[in-house]
Write a structure and sequence with these properties.
The chain is an alpha/beta fold. It is built from four helices and 26 strands. It is 19% helix and 28% strand. The strands form five sheets. Strands 5-8-11-14-17-20-25-26-22-23 form a ten-stranded mixed β-sheet, with helices on one face. Strands 6-9-12-15-18-21 form a six-stranded parallel β-sheet, with no helix packed on it. This is 2,3,4,5-tetrahydropyridine-2,6-dicarboxylate N-succinyltransferase.
């Protein structure tokens, strides 16, 4: 039996009515082995199946395994830093970080079980990584950042301070938020609802990236939804909204949009200087 087949079998029993109170020691062992595989980077909630950023697909069985860890465990009182909290899982053990050159600053870098961290990462306090999140080598997670459940963050990514990377568990077939290698997100960015950011893109601060907001790609001269192509410089602009035709709006109404252009050399130089601070 493989881990995937064990999880799939447990999922069938869960859909048939299996409860947390009815789980056996063998069932819990499957759940624990699954979390260990996530933390080791051996399984991921989504994988890239082609060359384009739009080719990411969810691993349905992995997302089911994460849901099982919520549905088949009892909420218990737990201790951290002298504080009692209540959850289905303890926090992730971080003893493996030092051997990979990854560091997290005190106090308040919270890693939930099932989160993966690569080598040479930096987690600034406070920050939060949820179950199923994957963070690649050399990535900086800055202060007040949240990386949601199943979010896939590539290598050498910079998440600016106060950045929110949304998570997704249901529907199970939907791919989570993806930030590919070499991306830089400015402070205050929000990336939600399965939006995908292509490799090497640089996103201006306070930009909202979500499938409901259009991306005006000036490079290919097209309007796209749900993803930002690679090697783009993106920022928020306001465009006219049809709501402005309503009598209640005097002088028109506007809605947010994202404009994407070529990455300029000056922008790359600024990003390289910021990267030097992580050495």
């Amino acid at each position: 039996m493989t881990l995937e087949s064990d999880v799939s079998d447990l999922w069938r029993r869960y859909e048939g009515g299996l409860s947390a109170a009815e789980t056996t020691a063998d069932d819990v062992a499957v759940l624990d082995d699954f979390l260990a595989a996530l933390e080791a980077g051996e399984v991921r909630a989504a994988e890239k199946t082609g060359d384009d950023v739009t080719s990411w697909e969810a691993n349905e069985w992995v997302k089911r395994g994460i849901l099982l860890n919520f549905g088949l465990r009892e909420t218990e009182p737990r201790e951290y830093g002298g504080v009692t909290y209540y959850d289905v899982l303890p926090l992730r053990n971080t003893d493996d970080l030092a051997e990979r050159g990854t560091r997290n600053t005190p106090d308040g870098t919270v890693l939930r079980r099932g989160a993966y961290l690569g080598s040479d990462c930096i987690l600034m306090s406070p920050s939060f990584l949820n179950m199923g999140a994957y963070v690649g080598d050399g990535t900086l997670v800055d202060s007040c950042d949240t990386v949601g459940s199943c979010a896939q963050i590539g290598a050498d990514v910079k998440l600016g301070a106060n950045t929110l990377i949304g998570g997704v568990l249901e529907p199970i077939e939907d791919a989570p938020v993806v930030i590919e290698d070499g991306v830089s997100l400015g402070a205050g960015c929000r990336v939600t609802s399965g939006f995908r950011v292509g490799e090497g893109s640089i996103v201006g601060e306070n930009t909202l990236l979500t499938p409901r907001i259009p991306v005006y790609d000036l490079v290919e001269e097209e309007v796209i939804y749900g993803h930002l192509p690679g090697e783009r410089r993106a920022f928020t602009r306001m465009v006219e909204s049809s709501v402005g035709d309503h009598d209640l709006f005097e002088g028109g109404a506007y809605k947010p949009a994202v404009v994407a252009t070529h990455v300029e050399e000056e922008t790359l130089e600024a990003t390289r200087r910021e990267g030097a601070l992580r050495e």
